[in-house]
């Protein structure tokens, strides 16, 4: 998820996106163990997206 996309979200949408990304990350880890993951970079992209969203939410709370 890009920075521009994150800025357009509301706080509730960001929280829902985090939940979805965490589930995706969980599934990617299982796929990696089983050798079914086609693109290992998806794990890092997902982790970075979660971090971006969490930072965005903290900024909204503190603002």
The proportion of strand residues reads under 5%
* Average pLDDT metric: 93
CATH topology: Helix Hairpins
In which range does the helix fraction lie? over 70%
Low-confidence stretches: none
User: Can you summarize the main beta sheet?
Assistant: none
Question: In total, how many domains does the architecture comprise?
Answer: 1
Computed CA radius of gyration, to the nearest angstrom: 13 Å
The count of DSSP E runs of length 2 or more, i.e. the number of strands, is 0
Task: Please give the CATH class.
Answer: Mainly Alpha
Shape: elongated
What is the end-to-end distance?
22 Å
Number of helices: 3
CATH architecture term: Orthogonal Bundle
Structural category? mainly alpha
Order of helices and strands: HHH
Question: Strands, helices and their partners?
Answer:
Layout: H1 3-7, H2 11-34, H3 41-62
Task: Identify the notable features of this structure and list them briefly.
63 residues, mainly alpha, Helix Hairpins
Kindly describe this structure.
With 63 residues, the chain is mainly α. The protein has one domain: Helix Hairpins, CATH 1.10.287. 81% of the residues lie in helices and 0% in strands. The chain contains three helices and no strands. α2 (11-34) runs antiparallel to α3. The chain is elongated, with a radius of gyration of 13 Å.
Overview in brief:
The chain has 63 residues and is mainly alpha-helical. The chain has helices spanning 3-7, 11-34, 41-62.
């Amino acid at each position: 998820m890009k920075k521009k996309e994150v800025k357009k979200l509301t706080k509730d949408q960001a929280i829902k996106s985090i939940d979805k990304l965490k589930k995706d990350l969980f599934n990617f880890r299982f796929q990696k163990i089983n050798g079914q993951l086609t693109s290992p970079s998806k794990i890092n992209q997902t982790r970075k997206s979660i971090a971006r969203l969490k930072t965005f939410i903290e900024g909204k709370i503190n603002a």
